Amino acid sequence: MSFLNPINKSECLEQVCASNYEKIFRLIPELCAVEGNAIGLAANNTTLHLQIIEQTAYTLTIELSHCFSFKPDELLEPAVRIRIYLDAQLAEVLSDHARPSVTHVYKDFGLCREIMNYKWRLNFFLQKWLDHCLTKGYQFTKQSILT
Predict the structure, then answer these.
(1) Summary mean pLDDT of the chain
(2) What distance in Å separates the CA atoms of residue 95 and residue 145, rounded to the nearest whole number?
(3) C-beta of residue 59 within 8 angstroms of C-beta of residue 85
(4) Distance between CA atoms of residues 49 and 23, nearest Å
(5) How many CB atoms are closer than 10 A to CB 122?
(6) Which of the 8 DSSP states describes residue 85?
(7) Measured between alpha carbons, how far is 65 from 79 in angstroms, rounded to an integer?
(8) Would you tell me which of 42, 76, 142, 144 could form a disulfide with 65, CB atoms 3.0–4.6 Å apart?
(9) Are 63 and 51 in contact (CB under 8 A)?
């Protein structure tokens, strides 16, 4: 992953999270109707798996992964866990397959710069991955929504 280091990282992070929210809903237009799992398909590409982790009135926590195997329990990567703030229209990465959540990495919240850098890298990765999925033409249809 290339390293982009903006000067005003907090403002840029908010813009990336807003962009990720918009891209997620372009990728999965019926996201709020999904109750369990769904599969996204694109011609000649691996399947994209969506799992609803938690849903409340104002937030939605999902996990999005590619499946690189015929056995859906294997090789699900990047297994990105995303919290979607429906009221604020933001989407923030909580963790992925390679990196734990920020609360597991940084126990001392006095490390603001390190925490911001960590969140920036996770969310910048999500932005690029969502761009990739949209470019490849992944589609989640009502038929692909599994409950």
Answers:
(1) 82
(2) 24
(3) yes
(4) 16
(5) 24
(6) E
(7) 4
(8) 76
(9) yes
* CB-based burial, 108-121: b 16+ in 10 Å, e otherwise: eeeeeeebeebbbb
Residue with tokens 């982790």: 53
Q: Where do we find the tokens 């963790």?
A: 95
Give the per-residue SS3 of 6-45: CCCHHHHHHHHHHHHHHHHHHHCCCHHHCCCEEEEECCCC
What would the two tokens of residue 120 be? Answer: 């920036």
pTM for this entry: 0.81
**Token couple for 93:** 């990465």
Backbone angles phi, psi at 93, to 5 degrees: -75, 130
Digit-coded pLDDT (tens) for 55-95: 999 999 999 998 766 655 555 657 899 999 999 999 999 98
Q: Which residues, in sequence order, are CB contacts of 96 under 8 Å at separation 6+?
A: 78, 79, 80, 81, 122, 125
